[in-house]
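User: Design a sequence. Structure:
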């Protein structure tokens, strides 16, 4: 049986490129593409076929080293991680990418079946091959999906981070004076970034005064007020004086109702008033 396993593995390794080409041709024959997409696909064809051959090679190696199934699993996981990222960056939808699994199963087993018939392997021997190959194929589907989703989530997180950074714009008004216009709700994550970016940008712009305009903030509760106080306190420690402007009537009412204390903090009606006072 061990010798037959090795023969199966050697056959797969020998035929990997031919199997990959036939698989790829069959797989792409049913894909509807525009002319531009077709040109791009033709350019990448050689690389995609190489990726397919490398995957098929893993099954040949698994048969050669069938006593070390964990090693085969680890190699499958590595391939799936790299390929999941590559397919995601190509913009191929996950459901479309997972359709490849059926083609791999079809062509790997087709080649194995031909060789097993040539070797006249018994049913017991065939079942042992099934117990080795099918779990690897199933595991590859799971690992590929997890890798694809991971990179998708990472991209979303990076996009969110970039959006949050753009939502904390400190704009210089004159020498030593800047304005931070806040718009929308302030949650815990944005408050953390508010602290980091405000300190960093104030230092970069060499500010002595920062106008914190809240005219675009609809809700100020105790959590938001606490976060703003922390930012103001941190700025004072680096020599930047803060002036709050643009508190909306409904927000002012909420502040009073909640008993939020603004003593010690400079508050002006609007940006113009604060700016005029600084340059009066």
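Assistant: Done.
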């Amino acid at each position: 049986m061990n010798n037959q396993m090795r023969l199966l593995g050697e056959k797969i390794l020998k035929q990997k490129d031919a199997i990959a080409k036939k698989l790829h041709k069959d797989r792409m024959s049913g894909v509807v593409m525009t002319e531009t997409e077709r040109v791009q696909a033709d350019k990448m064809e050689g690389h995609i076929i190489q990726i397919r051959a490398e995957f098929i090679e893993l099954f040949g190696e698994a048969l050669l080293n069938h006593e070390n199934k964990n090693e085969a699993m680890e190699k499958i996981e590595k391939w799936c991680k790299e390929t999941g990222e590559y397919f995601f960056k190509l913009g191929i939808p996950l459901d479309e990418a997972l359709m490849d699994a059926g083609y791999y199963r079809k062509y790997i087993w087709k080649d194995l079946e031909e060789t097993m018939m040539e070797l006249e392997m018994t049913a017991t021997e065939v079942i042992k091959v099934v117990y080795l190959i099918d779990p690897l194929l199933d595991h590859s589907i799971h690992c590929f999906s997890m890798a694809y989703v991971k990179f998708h989530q990472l991209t979303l997180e990076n996009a969110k981070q970039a959006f949050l950074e753009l939502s904390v714009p400190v704009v210089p008004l004159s020498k030593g004076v800047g304005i931070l216009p806040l718009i929308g709700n302030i949650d815990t994550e944005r408050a953390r970034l508010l602290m980091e970016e405000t300190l960093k940008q104030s230092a970069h712009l060499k500010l002595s005064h920062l106008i914190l305009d809240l005219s675009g903030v609809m809700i100020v509760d105790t959590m938001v007020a606490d976060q703003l106080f922390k930012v103001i306190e941190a700025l004072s420690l680096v020599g930047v004086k803060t002036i709050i402007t643009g508190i909306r009537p409904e927000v002012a009412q909420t502040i009073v109702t909640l008993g939020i204390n603004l003593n010690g903090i400079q508050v002006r009606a609007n940006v113009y008033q604060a700016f005029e006072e600084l340059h009066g």
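The two ends are 94 Å apart (CA to CA). The chain has two domains: 2-164, 171-278.
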